[in-house]
TrEMBL record:
Residues 3-215 form the NAD-dependent epimerase/dehydratase domain. SUPFAM superfamilies: NAD(P)-binding Rossmann-fold domains. It comes from Kribbella yunnanensis. PANTHER family: NAD(P)-BINDING DOMAIN-CONTAINING PROTEIN-RELATED, PROTEIN YEEZ. Pfam families: Epimerase. Residues 111-131, 262-294 are annotated as: Disordered. This is SDR family oxidoreductase.
Length: 294
């Protein structure tokens, strides 16, 4: 299958490129910069130049391909306005790709986060919240999945808050980045909140399986660790970086404070049973031991 891929040089995207190529697919990667284009070519992908705001480029990429995997997203979380701008850009991009695929029967796999279900791990049957800072993204993902009614084999892979590789990535990676800059490992809330996690290489396998096998209009959970306690996560980071740990207010984490402080365990039982997905790489706490000291 010739696959049009957005976000192909990020932590997850680069793993997806490798997974697709290793399984006899070819990749047409969207590349915004010279550096991204070079990285994609070195990985073995063909390149189409453009960004998520280049809607004609997105339509052309989708038209050339046998299927689409969307991973790109603007990761400026500095202000609520910046997040809103990224959500709006992605929404328009998904609509453009969907228009190009309507009526073709081609697979279209998009990405979102796992939902929150109070008092229990969330499942594939739970709906994403359409409220709050990233509620617009949830609505955009739902619109992609609904393309099943317009002749698209659409599905969504939900990623946990931490997708990691060699200790880097996701919410845990942000805690590490903040700690390296401040000299203190900080976290919001009381630390008992649980974050699900998955290794990037395991997540990549699920994206391939969804591309190849997912029924239209379905959701899948790329969750290996159902929920690691934040206190356990920061303890490993602190030991690796040889830094102290400090609980701080939710407000200190800016627009993402409420999300960071939420208890959000998640299950992937249905995904494993239906698609035969089974994570094989180290869990988050083990992988964090690969962090290099400051």
């Amino acid at each position: 299958m010739h696959v049009f891929l957005t976000g192909g040089t990020g932590l997850v995207g680069s793993a997806v490129v490798g997974e697709l190529l290793a399984n006899e697919h070819t990749v047409l990667a969207l590349a915004r910069s010279d550096a991204s284009a070079q990285a994609a070519v070195q990985a073995g992908a063909e390149v189409i130049r453009g960004s998520l705001s280049d809607l004609d480029v997105l339509r052309a990429g989708a038209a050339k391909a046998d299927g689409v995997i969307h991973l790109a997203f603007g990761h400026d979380f500095s202000t609520a306005a910046a997040v809103a701008a990224s959500v709006a850009e992605e929404t328009a991009a998904l609509e453009a790709i969907g228009e190009a695929l309507a009526g073709t029967g081609k697979p279209f796999v998009t990405v979102s986060g796992t939902p929150t279900a109070p008092g229990r791990p969330s499942t594939e049957a739970d709906e994403l919240s359409s409220e709050g800072l990233v509620g617009g993204r949830s609505r955009a993902v739902a619109a992609v999945v609904a393309l099943a009614e317009r002749g698209v084999r659409s599905s969504a892979v939900r990623l946990p808050r931490t997708v990691h590789n060699n200790g880097d990535g996701g919410f845990a990676g942000l805690l590490t980045t903040i700690a390296r800059g401040s000299g203190v490992v900080t976290y919001p809330g009381d630390g008992t909140q649980r974050w699900p996690a998955v290794h990037a290489l395991d997540a990549a396998v699920l994206f391939r399986l969804a591309l190849e096998k997912a029924e239209p209009g379905t959701y899948w959970h790329a969750v290996a660790d159902e929920g690691d306690r934040v206190t356990d996560i920061v303890d490993v980071i602190a030991r690796r970086l040889n830094l102290p740990v400090k609980a701080v207010s939710i407000e200190d984490f800016g627009p993402l404070g409420q999300i960071f402080a939420a208890d959000q365990p998640s299950s992937s039982d249905q995904t494993r049973r239906t698609l035969g997905w089974e994570p094989k790489h180290p869990g988050l706490l083990a992988d964090l031991k690969n962090l290099q000291p400051a």
